[in-house]
Design a protein that fits this description.
Helices cover about 15% and strands about 25% of the residues. It is an alpha/beta fold and about 70 residues long.
């Protein structure tokens, strides 16, 4: 997904109980992205530059995400 500033926004989709975004954080660090998105069964949230979005609300993600 690209943000409004033409940056790539990494998205990680988790289906199990272990929803720690380790690979997402690793990618964010290497690519120096300002934030990432984790889609899982957990509720909405924001922690350590990672937005959490529940699976049922994935339609809320926009192609024009802005930082």
């Amino acid at each position: 997904m690209q943000s409004g500033f033409e940056e790539v926004v990494p998205i990680e989709v988790k289906s199990g109980d272990n929803v720690r975004p380790t690979s997402l954080r690793r990618f964010m660090q290497r690519a120096q992205t300002p934030f990432g998105v984790r889609v899982s069964a957990k509720n909405f949230g924001f922690e350590d530059r990672v937005f959490s979005v529940p699976l049922y609300a994935m339609f809320c993600l926009s192609r024009d995400m802005t930082v």
